[in-house]
Amino acid sequence: MAAFSGPFNPLLGLQQTLDAFRTSGWLDAGPSGGGAYPPINVFRKGDDFLIVAEVPGVKKSDLDVQVKGRTIRISGAKAVGYPERAGVHRRERLGGRFDRAVALPVEVEADAAKAECRDGILALLLPRAAQDKPKTIQVN
Questions:
Q1: Which residues, including other chains, have CB under 8 Å from residue 137's CB and lie 6 or more apart?
Q2: Please, what is the end-to-end C-alpha distance for the chain in angstroms?
Q3: Domain-wise residue ranges, the chain
Q4: What is the β-pairing status of strands 63-68 and 71-78?
Q5: Alpha carbon 121 to chain centroid, angstroms
Q6: Each residue of 17-34: pLDDT tens digit?
Q7: Is residue 49 scored above 80 in pLDDT?
Q8: Exposed site from 39, 74, 84, 124, fewest CB < 10 Å?
Q9: Could you give the CA distance from residue 70 to residue 48 in angstroms, rounded to a whole number?
Q10: The 96-103 sheet, strands edge to edge
Q11: 78-105: per-residue pLDDT in tens?
């Protein structure tokens, strides 16, 4: 006797797959390409490092940058306002608090670090700590 599946079995399978995706956390990252915020690039410039972070819509006063040892922490808040009495049809611009830490391969001289934010771009110049620089030893 041949066994046939019921007409609703494919729908049940689809529902189970959708439930698995919903509980997996893949929606928590926000819209496509959301990922970690703020997005950053880290460059080496001689012995020093340069971090460039995209922070459009974030006020300088809402940014906090901390340097400790090899770790750089960028945190703050991004406000996204809506007109009064407006119904949201689609929301892709996210707001709220953010906190991102980056570990560098060398220690940073925190007192000499510089930060500048212009046109939604945060640039951090992070000089390598003197105690972390290689020392040349004279061979006698």
A1: none
A2: 93
A3: 36-79+96-134
A4: antiparallel
A5: 14
A6: 777 766 655 545 444 445
A7: yes
A8: 84
A9: 12
A10: 63-68, 71-78, 96-103
A11: 888 778 888 877 877 778 899 999 999 9
